[in-house]
Amino acid sequence: MRLIMLGPPGAGKGTQAALVSAAHGVPAISTGDIFRANIKNETPLGLQVKEITASGGYVPDEITNAIVRDRLAQEDAAHGFLLDGYPRTTGQVAALDEMLAEAGHALDAVVELTVDTDEVVGRLLARAVEQGRADDTEEVIRERMRLYAEETAPLAAVYRERGLLHRVDGMGSVEEVTGRIEQVLGRVRD
Ligand code: B4P
């Protein structure tokens, strides 16, 4: 199973990716998590992307594509993966197409989680209290959402044209959303 999880900040991509990954035995690959781990460990990559992620901007495609290329080349991704937070730009879509073509693989589905703006802001502000993530302030959340609308939301149309897009209502409890995603995956496998 090769999946992409698409959706605005706070839609629940990370939460659902972890659950789907565990249920289907494929690694969940989150570019956001990779950047945060590098920032925490103060690696050269972490130092390079710290300011960008803290302000809600996108890390340049060359950096992000190289990281995903390395990650997809690892053994555990050979038979499937779930991408969370990648691709986010048309340049990343093109790079991923290239990586998949080189490996002789194809995507099975793109799941787009949809949520109300107010709900998203509420979720991320709640997470700010729990986890204190540098990019979960109201101002930065608005910037992340603006960038999502401008750069990432249009990717849904690209995947719709390819017949891969499945829109899933991301409102409600975590369990409800997981149930909807599993229904989609059941249809994809049939
Ligand atoms: P990400 O880590 O991907 O951040 P995000 O889009 O804001 O998603 P996040 O994982 O935080 O939210 P989720 O939907 O899981 O990226 C962080 C930064 O890294 C970016 O801003 C950018 O700077 C950089 N970056 C990452 N990938 C990049 C790329 N490809 N190109 C360029 N730059 C890149 O929401 C989770 C929250 O909602 C949690 O608090 C959770 O508990 C809560 N939640 C989930 N489901 C819920 C439910 N049903 N009900 C209530 N709460 C729920």
UniProtKB/TrEMBL annotation:
Detail which positions bind ATP. 10-15, 127, 172
Designated name of the protein: Adenylate kinase
Show the domain comment.
Consists of three domains, a large central CORE domain and two small peripheral domains, NMPbind and LID, which undergo movements during catalysis. The LID domain closes over the site of phosphoryl transfer upon ATP binding. Assembling and dissambling the active center during each catalytic cycle provides an effective means to prevent ATP hydrolysis.
Q: Where does AMP bind?
A: 31, 36, 57-59, 85-88, 92, 133, 144
Stored NCBIfam families: PRK00279.1-3, PRK14527.1, PRK14528.1, PRK14531.1, PRK14532.1
Task: Name where it's found.
Answer: Cytoplasm
UniProtKB keywords: ATP-binding, Cytoplasm, Kinase, Nucleotide biosynthesis, Nucleotide-binding, Transferase
Family matches, as Gene3D superfamilies: P-loop containing nucleotide triphosphate hydrolases
Function comment: Catalyzes the reversible transfer of the terminal phosphate group between ATP and AMP. Plays an important role in cellular energy homeostasis and in adenine nucleotide metabolism.
Q: In which pathway does it act?
A: Purine metabolism; AMP biosynthesis via salvage pathway; AMP from ADP: step 1/1
Q: Signal peptide span per the entry? A: none
Assembly? Monomer.
Please give the organism. Answer: Ornithinimicrobium tianjinense
Which biological process terms from the Gene Ontology are attached to this UniProt entry?
AMP salvage
**For this protein, what is the EC number?**
2.7.4.3
Kindly indicate whether the keyword ATP-binding belongs to this entry. Answer: yes
What InterPro entries does this protein's entry cite? Adenylat/UMP-CMP_kin, Adenylat_kinase_CS, P-loop_NTPase
Q: Name one GO cellular component term.
A: cytoplasm
The domain of life is Bacteria
Question: Reaction catalysed by this chain?
Answer: AMP + ATP = 2 ADP
Q: What Gene Ontology molecular function terms does this protein carry?
A: AMP kinase activity; ATP binding
| UniProt-annotated stretches for the region NMP | 30-59
Family under the similarity heading: Belongs to the adenylate kinase family.
Keyword Membrane attributed: no
Residues that span the membrane, as ranges: none
